[in-house]
Design a protein that fits this description.
Residues 5-73 form a coiled coil. The chain has 89 residues and is mostly helical. The protein is built from two helices and no strands. It is 89% helix and 0% strand.
Length: 89
């Protein structure tokens, strides 16, 4: 009878040790997994969106500069002075 109790106690201790090991492994895996999930869900997406915004702003600025240069190069239309000729006649 005593032998059976000793065996049960040993098995219970082994189970307890295994549970503690599993818990520690699970906690380690969670700690490794958390930063990656944060990167996927938040900061990397925000970073990509921010990069896209910056790229679009740069394109907008360049197109505005090109438009301004084109306006500067465009010849200025002067109105004809035909009315002077009317007064002379």
């Amino acid at each position: 009878m005593q032998n059976l109790l000793d065996q049960q106690q040993r098995l219970a201790l082994q189970d307890k040790k295994l549970l503690e090991e599993y818990k520690s492994e699970i906690n380690e895996l969670k700690s490794l997994k958390m930063p990656q999930e944060d990167m996927k869900d938040g900061s990397s997406i925000r970073g990509e969106a921010q990069e896209e915004i910056e790229r679009l702003k740069a394109q907008l600025k360049l197109s505005e500069e090109e438009r301004n240069k084109a306006k500067e190069k465009e010849p200025v239309k002067t109105e004809s002075k035909k009315w002077w000729g009317l007064w002379r006649k």
